[in-house]
Write a sequence for this structure.
């Protein structure tokens, strides 16, 4: 299991500090939510903030693009130091093209699907992606409750991966805590995004430890 704290729930005034806290606690990824105010109603930040944060962390930067027309962002985020760039299947009619651009820019390519989007929509790009993100809440706002029904899609993706010998990671994002993480891991996920559960705690390191322990009991 890889843990990816979502900085959407961090203290933006002390972002480098909050990132250092979770990095010292042993997480593998940093989940960075980019929202443009169009694909989702919320607005966060752009490549300039990611670039400013990059020298302060050795974590894998896992960038979740909740934006319209993701193609136009690829070059800037590659230059900012992003390791994994995820685009929503719902955000572009040219999904194969933008995933190819991401890989050509030197990043790993991730495809993302909303709770209402079936796995069949992304079946043709599964052989080429490095990671699939299944949203376990509706995108755009932190602190929502985990949608257990999305686990059927995680199971489908895990089965397809095994049967076809594909190599993508399966990430889940939304409402993850020390209880719901067990459902996600049992379904076949191996990358866990947690935002408010980690950064909303007095001691984020304790919450990261709790996720690890819950994962160990599940495995």
């Amino acid at each position: 299991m890889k843990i990816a704290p979502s900085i959407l729930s961090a203290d933006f005034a002390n972002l480098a500090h909050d990132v250092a806290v979770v990095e010292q606690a042993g997480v593998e990824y940093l989940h960075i939510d980019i929202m443009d105010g169009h694909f989702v109603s919320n607005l966060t930040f752009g490549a300039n903030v990611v670039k400013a944060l990059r020298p302060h962390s050795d974590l894998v930067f896992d960038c979740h693009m909740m934006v319209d027309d993701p193609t136009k962002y690829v070059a800037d985020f590659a230059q900012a130091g992003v390791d994994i760039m995820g685009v929503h299947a719902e955000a572009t009619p040219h999904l194969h093209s933008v995933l190819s651009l991401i890989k050509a820019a030197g990043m790993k390519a991730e495809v993302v699907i909303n709770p209402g989007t079936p796995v069949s929509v992304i079946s043709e790009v599964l052989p080429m992606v490095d990671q699939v993100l299944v949203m376990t809440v509706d995108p755009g706002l932190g602190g929502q409750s985990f949608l257990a029904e999305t686990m059927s899609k995680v199971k489908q993706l895990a089965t397809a991966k095994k049967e076809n010998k594909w190599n993508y990671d399966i990430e889940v994002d939304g409402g993850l805590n020390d209880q719901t993480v067990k459902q996600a891991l049992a379904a076949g996920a191996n990358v866990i995004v947690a935002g408010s559960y980690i950064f909303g705690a007095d001691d984020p390191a304790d919450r990261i430890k709790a996720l690890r322990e819950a994962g160990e009991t599940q495995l």
Q: What stands out?
A: The chain has eight helices and eight strands.
